Amino acid sequence: MAVAPESQRRRLPGLELLQSAAPAPAEPLKTCLGALQREWRKDDHLAALWQDWPRVAGAQLAPHCRPLSLQRGVLTVGASHPQWRQALLYNKPQLISALHQAGHAVRDLRIQQHHSLQSPVLESEASIWAQHPSRTDVHGMGTCPDCGRPAPNGEVKLWGHCGFCHRQTLSPS
């Protein structure tokens, strides 16, 4: 059985109380973060790869792919588009070499298609309608060069003719 140190004992008449240990002194945040980074490097943690990824993958590949997981020396990298996946496959030996030079114990790469969780920012319905080609109050009225009828200038500018003539070009004859 372990005996508590003197600093944790409090003696009262006929009674001895144990107190919790004093908290460790506070360390500066910079020191804590440095220790955390050293642990990541030592344990081949994925966070160390994230930190080094822009330098390892290069300026062209890094924005379009990212490390997803690291298990038993196999790094899974996700590509945002099939073309970037192909580029990763093509550069696989160079990437493994760059990872080794950066101090990461990666023995193989697995490359997969990966769509990030960030969804593109969509325009609001109001902003889309504000610039819609059929709005005569914004673009004005003109004449369709094909049928000679009045047509919104936005439609004529966009398609080269009015919406009715454009519809006829889209439908099978």
Write the topology of this structure.
Elements lengths: L8 E4 L2 E4 L10 H14 L3 H16 L3 E7 L2 E6 L2 H9 L1 H10 L6 E6 L11 H6 L5 H4 L1 E3 L6 E3 H7 L3 H8 L3
Parallel strand pairs: 4-5
Antiparallel strand pairs: 1-2, 3-4, 6-7
Features:
19% strand, alpha+beta, 173 residues, 43% helix, 8 helices, 3-stranded mixed beta sheet
Polypeptide structure, described:
This protein has helices at 29-42, 46-61, 82-90, 92-101, 125-130, 136-139, 153-159, 163-170; strands at 9-12, 15-18, 65-71, 74-79, 108-113, 141-143, 150-152. The protein is an alpha+beta fold. The strands form 3 sheets. A 3-stranded mixed β-sheet has the order 3-4-5. The protein has a two-stranded antiparallel sheet with strand order 1-2. It is elongated. The chain starts with 8 loop residues before the first strand and ends with a helix.
